[in-house]
Amino acid sequence: MCQVEFEMACAAVKQLKGPVSDQEKLLVYSFYKQATQGDCNIPAPPATDVKAKAKWEAWNESKGMSKMDAMRIYVAKVEELKKNDTG
């Protein structure tokens, strides 16, 4: 796994045309954040901010995962989404 593959996956995810479920978006987001920033280091948003809370929880679930593992999983998930892209 190299940085170039990760960056290509980051660009590819923006090109997806088909519908991507909220769950898949959160999964991709969590691995992106873990790969680029490491463990979640911000306080949990209030429960009233549903979208921010969901994103925070998704990222926080990756806690302890290495940045390299997160990159690897992110690339694999984006490849899977590209294969299923029906747009």
TrEMBL record:
Chief location: cytoplasm
GO CC terms, sorted: mitochondrion
Top-level taxon: Eukaryota
UniProt-annotated location(s): Cytoplasm
Entry keyword Chaperone: no
This protein's record includes keyword NADP: no
Transmembrane segments: none
Keywords: Cytoplasm, Lipid-binding, Transport
Domain annotation ACB: ranges: 2-87
A Pfam cross-reference name: ACBP
GO MF annotations in UniProt: fatty-acyl-CoA binding
GO terms for biological process, alphabetical: fatty acid metabolic process
Recorded family membership: Belongs to the ACBP family.
Function: May be involved in the energy metabolism of the mature sperm.
Protein name (record): Diazepam-binding inhibitor-like 5
Organism: Neomonachus schauinslandi
